[in-house]
Every structure is written in structure tokens, then in C-alpha cells.
Write a structure and sequence with these properties.
This protein is an alpha/beta fold. The chain has 2 domains: about 170 residues, Rossmann fold; about 50 residues, Alpha-Beta Plaits (2-Layer Sandwich). The protein contains 7 helices and 8 strands; from the N terminus they run βαββαβαβαβααβαβ. The strands form 2 sheets. Strands 2-1-3-4-5-8 form a 6-stranded mixed beta sheet, sandwiched between helices. The chain binds flavin mononucleotide (FMN) and iron/sulfur cluster (2 copies). The site of flavin mononucleotide (FMN) has 26 residues, from α1 and β4.
């Protein structure tokens, strides 16, 4: 039996949460990186007795489109999936429901799901430094409960999750990073952008139409050259203050 971590984590918050679940299985975990567009996801076929920890961030209350497109290509063959939606203290809305639909259609059996809070990757003042110690302890407890259920083969016929269909409409956010003067043209951001929105031959530019505002380029640039417009993010944070300020809980969905 293999354990897979199938993740889309542009800035690492989702990965932090997924690792807490991976650790609960005490064995080597293979990673499938949904931000890596060079992978031929059609070639990935999981075996029935494998377990997949599938973790995505919530973007606008949805599964990020590119993550959904890559996931849809993977064949589940009845493997068990643990669904994780990571959100920045506003809400995850339809993310888990959408993830369940994608995985079920791909032949996975959805064993359990978790919604977990991590620092907001655009407005860092929301859920700052989460998952914190308390979160990580709680996520470990969730992971142990899920592992026990799977070992006892108690997989729900249908995992009931919150969310609505049609899903919440999401058309992206107008916050797109660009490189400032101290860019050394090292090309790292262009290589790591999940949607190839940064031209390799001119990495100080950004294709606004392709960019999904995932903030990976901002978080990995070694010279801190890529920045978002401060005024736009301040306005966005002001608008979202009410819905994002109160500490939100992590949630476990495990069926009956
Ligand atoms: C484009 C974008 C949209 C987001 N939309 C939401 C949202 O609707 N609700 C929320 O609570 N957090 C939202 N967030 C915050 C992320 O879900 C959160 O910071 C997550 O940890 C990012 O994952 P990562 O660190 O793996 O990149 C959004 C972040 C980005 C970049
Ligand atoms: S990672 Fe930073 S320094 Fe390197 S090309 Fe991109 S913006 Fe320039
Ligand atoms: S250019 Fe846009 S999509 Fe690409 S890494 Fe940067 S924020 Fe993400």
C-alpha cells in the first residue's frame, strides 16, 4: 500500500496542513505536485489499496481551476482519498464539495474530509502564523481518527460535505504581482509559476490574463522583487476585515 500526498500549494500553507496528515501514517509518502504543469497527470493511476491525501487551498471558495484540471486527469481506481481544503480565515464555501465531485468522478472513494485554516497568502494579517501549535495538535488528532477509520474499513457510502451546487462564482482577484527593479532575472519565478504567467526570457513581466494571483512568485523570489500593489491589497483587506478577523475553526468530516 502506498500513501500519496497530492497537493496544490503555491505558498506552502496547504503543504504544512497536508504534512500533518502524512505523518500519521508512519511510512514513506510519495508526492504528486499539482503546481507542476510539466507532469503528465493522465499517466498517473493510483492502486485500489492506496491512500491519497488530496489537499488544495480555497481560492474564492473554490478549488483553484488549474488544480482541478490536473486532478481530473488522475485515475483513482477505487483508492481512498482524504480531502483537505485549506483557507485563509474567510470561508472555504464550496471547495470541499467541488473536490469531492472531482475525486469521485475520477474513481476515488472519499473517506474523510478536513477544512483547515492557514495564513492568508495575499493578506497575511488574516490567520497570521496559522496553522499554529494548537491547530497542528488538532490536525494530528483528526489524522489519527481518519487513519483508524480507514484501517477498520469504515468508508462512508457517500461523504456528506457542506457546500452548494452550482458552486460559488469566482472570477479571480485583480491583485497581480510584478517584479521591481532589483530583479536579477534568475528565472526561478517563471519556472515555478503554476500557469506560466511569467515569460522565461523576461521574468520581470506578468501575463495578467494567465496569472491566478497564487502568490508563489512573491513567496519564492530570492531578492523579494515581486510585489503586489499595496493600495489594492489594503483596500481588499479593509473590505474583508469583518469576515476574516474572528478566528475560524478547523473542521473534520468523517461520516457516521
Ligand atoms: C487568489 C486567492 C484566493 C483566495 N480565496 C480565499 C477564500 O475565498 N477564502 C479564504 O478563506 N481564503 C482564501 N485565500 C487564502 C488561501 O486559501 C490560504 O492562504 C491558503 O493557505 C493558501 O495556500 P498555500 O499557502 O498552499 O498557497 C485565497 C488566496 C488566494 C491567493
Ligand atoms: S525570482 Fe525574483 S529575481 Fe528571479 S527572475 Fe523572478 S522576480 Fe527576478
Ligand atoms: S505570476 Fe501569478 S500565477 Fe504565476 S506565480 Fe505569480 S501570482 Fe502565481
Amino acid at each position: 500500500m502506498n500513501i500519496y500526498k497530492i497537493i496544490f500549494s503555491p505558498t506552502g500553507g496547504t503543504d504544512k496542513v497536508a504534512n500533518q496528515f502524512a505523518q500519521a501514517f508512519d511510512q514513506e509518502v510519495k508526492t504528486i505536485d499539482l503546481t507542476d504543469s510539466a507532469t503528465d497527470f493522465h499517466q498517473i493511476s493510483i492502486a485500489e489499496d492506496d491512500i491519497c491525501i488530496v489537499a488544495v487551498p480555497s481560492f474564492g471558495g473554490r478549488v483553484p481551476t488549474i488544480a482541478a484540471e490536473h486532478l481530473e486527469k488522475i485515475t483513482g481506481n477505487g483508492a481512498k482519498a482524504i480531502l483537505i481544503a485549506v483557507f485563509g480565515n474567510r470561508a472555504y464555501d464550496d471547495t470541499l464539495l467541488e473536490l469531492k465531485t472531482i475525486l469521485t468522478n475520477g474513481g476515488f472513494r472519499c473517506a474523510a474530509a478536513v477544512a483547515a485554516v492557514a495564513e492568508h497568502s495575499i493578506m497575511h494579517q488574516f490567520a497570521q502564523a496559522r496553522p499554529d501549535k494548537k491547530d497542528l495538535e488538532e490536525l494530528s488528532r483528526f489524522a489519527k481518527q481518519i487513519r483508524q477509520r480507514i484501517e477498520e474499513n469504515r468508508i462512508p457510502e457517500e461523504l456528506i460535505l457542506p457546500g452548494n451546487h452550482p458552486y460559488r462564482e469566482y472570477n479571480g482577484v485583480p491583485i497581480k504581482p510584478v517584479a521591481k527593479k532589483n530583479c536579477t532575472k534568475c528565472g526561478l519565478c517563471a519556472k515555478k509559476c503554476p500557469v506560466q504567467a511569467i515569460p522565461l526570457n523576461n521574468p520581470s513581466e506578468t501575463d495578467y490574463k494567465k496569472c491566478i494571483s497564487c502568490m508563489r512568485c512573491v513567496s519564492i523570489c530570492p531578492t523579494h522583487s515581486r510585489k503586489v500593489n499595496k493600495i489594492l491589497t489594503t483596500i481588499a483587506a479593509y473590505k474583508m476585515k469583518k469576515s476574516c478577523s474572528e478566528r475560524k475553526a478547523n473542521e473534520l468530516f468523517i461520516g457516521v
